[in-house]
UniProtKB/TrEMBL annotation:
Protein name: CO/xanthine dehydrogenase FAD-binding subunit
Entry keyword annotation includes Transport: no
PANTHER family in the cross-refs: XANTHINE DEHYDROGENASE SUBUNIT C-RELATED
Lineage: Bacteria, Bacillati, Actinomycetota, Actinomycetes, Streptosporangiales
InterPro entries registered for this protein in UniProt: CO_DH_flav_C, CO_DH_flav_C_dom_sf, Diverse_Substr_Oxidored, FAD-bd_PCMH, FAD-bd_PCMH-like_sf, FAD-bd_PCMH_sub1, FAD-bd_PCMH_sub2, Mopterin_DH_FAD-bd
Length: 288
């Protein structure tokens, strides 16, 4: 197996163009497990860790651009106040060792339906910046990025450069069910992000379909039903939960049954919406 060490982003794109079969590696917390277990044996690894640009994040015109190599640990410490939903999800990833190595870019590259970064990225309308030497930059909305189980929209010569997302405009929550409290792959997960300026609630659902997904009908329901100047009626929260659950197409597997996942999604969606709504109302009352 060849080992290619790119030191600049331009070098990385050139290496991927020259050898599209080369597997990019960042934290290695997915790639090395797969190699150790002989799940895959790529012709080459393309090490992106020396590429300084990937480890940077910046904010411009109200949008955060988070390099694909920013780790979960840094995301929590440096961006937790601006992206509370993604930070909550990041805190549930593996252990501190995994959070010190693992990256959101790697979660996107792996495109596992159970990846914890995906629901908050969907709920927050994130856009993935992909790039190739031949065609330049391509901006892919998160909702169009996941194509199937562990399949994403990247072309063989493309790499993920960054994720673009607006800082939270309102409360955000992420909740996941696992068979224990830590070091666990989600049985299912839900993220909500309130966008008060647009009178809209974004959603993301994980580990309950071949891909992470948005619950579009649930979002439309809230856009029509929510009165942003009053309380959240319990039947509205309950119906939202049902619609989030209905958006999923879960399977029975070692982690849980489809029926359990459907039930848990409805509960998680109702809870996360209620938490976010209560935070929003409290903040609105303080300002009144
Ligand atoms: C013990 C353990 C616990 C874990 N727990 C969780 C958990 O709770 N939740 C969770 O979501 N995940 C978990 N994971 C999986 C893993 O940590 C995450 O998916 C992490 O985000 C991967 O990031 P990485 O930087 O290590 O990716 P890598 O392993 O380096 O790469 C992952 C994939 O992304 C591709 N890739 C990496 N960078 C790029 C790029 N710039 N452009 C294009 N493709 C790229 C790689 O080729 C590979 O296919 C766990 C893993 C382990 C070993």
């Amino acid at each position: 197996m060849d080992f290619i060490r790119a030191t600049t982003w331009v070098d990385a794109l050139a290496a991927k163009a020259a050898q599209p079969g080369a597997v990019p590696i960042q934290g290695g917390t997915d790639v090395m497990v797969e190699i150790n277990f002989d799940v895959r044996r790529p012709p080459a690894l393309l090490d992106l860790t020396p590429v300084a640009e990937l480890a940077e994040w910046s904010e411009r015109d109200g949008v955060l651009r988070i390099g694909a190599g920013v780790t979960y640990a840094r995301l929590i410490a440096e961006l937790g106040d601006r992206l509370p939903g993604l930070a909550q999800a990041s805190r549930t990833v593996g252990s501190s060792q995994i959070r010190n190595r693992g990256t959101v870019g790697g979660n996107l590259g792996a495109a596992s339906p159970a990846g914890d970064a995906h629901p908050p990225l969907l709920a927050g309308d994130a856009v993935i910046e992909a790039e190739s030497a031949a065609r330049g930059v391509r901006m892919i909305p998160a909702a169009e990025f996941y194509l199937g189980v562990k399949r994403n929209a990247l072309a063989p010569d493309e790499l993920i450069r960054a994720v673009h997302v607006r800082p939270a405009a309102g409360p955000q929550y992420f909740a996941k069910v696992g068979t224990r409290n830590a070091m666990v792959i989600a049985v299912c997960s839900v993220a909500v992000a309130l966008h008060p300026g647009e009178r809209r609630v974004g959603t993301g659902v994980g580990s309950a379909a071949p891909t992470p997904l948005r619950a579009a009908e649930a979002e439309e329901y809230l856009a029509a039903e929510l009165d942003w100047d009053s309380g959240l009626p319990a039947p509205v929260a309950a119906r939202f939960g049902e619609l989030v659950s209905a958006a999923a197409s879960p399977i029975d597997d070692v982690r849980g049954t489809a029926a359990y996942r459907r039930h848990a999604l409805a509960v998680l969606a109702r809870r996360t919406l209620t938490w976010a709504w209560n935070d929003y109302r409290k903040a609105a009352e303080r300002c009144a």
